[in-house]
Amino acid sequence: xxxxxxxxxxxxxxxxxxxxxxxxxxxxxxxxxxxxxxxxxxxxxxxxxxxxxxxxxxxxxxxxxxxxxxxxxxxxxxxxxxxxxxxxxxxxxxxxxxxxxxxxxxxxxxxxxxxxxxxxxxxxxxxxxxxxxxxxxxxxxxxxxxxxxxxxxxxxxxxxxxxxx
Length: 165
Description:
The chain has three domains: 4-63, Arc Repressor Mutant, subunit A; 69-109, Arc Repressor Mutant, subunit A, CATH 1.10.10; 114-158, Orthogonal Bundle (Arc Repressor Mutant, subunit A), CATH 1.10.10. The N and C termini lie far apart (88 Å). By secondary structure, the protein is mostly helical. The longest helix is centred in the first third of the chain and has 29 residues, at 4-32. It has helices spanning 4-32, 37-46, 51-63, 69-82, 87-96, 101-109, 114-126, 134-147, 151-158.
């Protein structure tokens, strides 16, 4: 039978081992790709690590500079913007990953020229010729909306202006 003191020591040793295992799992995950803090917390929880162990590991990784939501958001915006995704779609994805709204706005502001990107994406999909009809303009607008561009970006890319036609 274990005494109260030996159970406490055993629990502390298990917590230390749990933290070490959680750190090893976190480093293994981060070796594959970068993660947001909230995303890594979820991954560690899914692997069966306790909230305390995950929080301790995440705090260590933040202090070491390995985890940084701002860097993650800027890299995410650069990568997905380069793939032709718009700021609305990117912002939603970042918020789903637990990134703070102020960090998301900062990353989007430092991103590409969204109007020029919308025009580039529209031309890559539909060619350089302007839309022949309103139905074609609407089809282009729906495509850009799906890609995550705002109404201003869509109007700039499709040439639809309130005074036209």
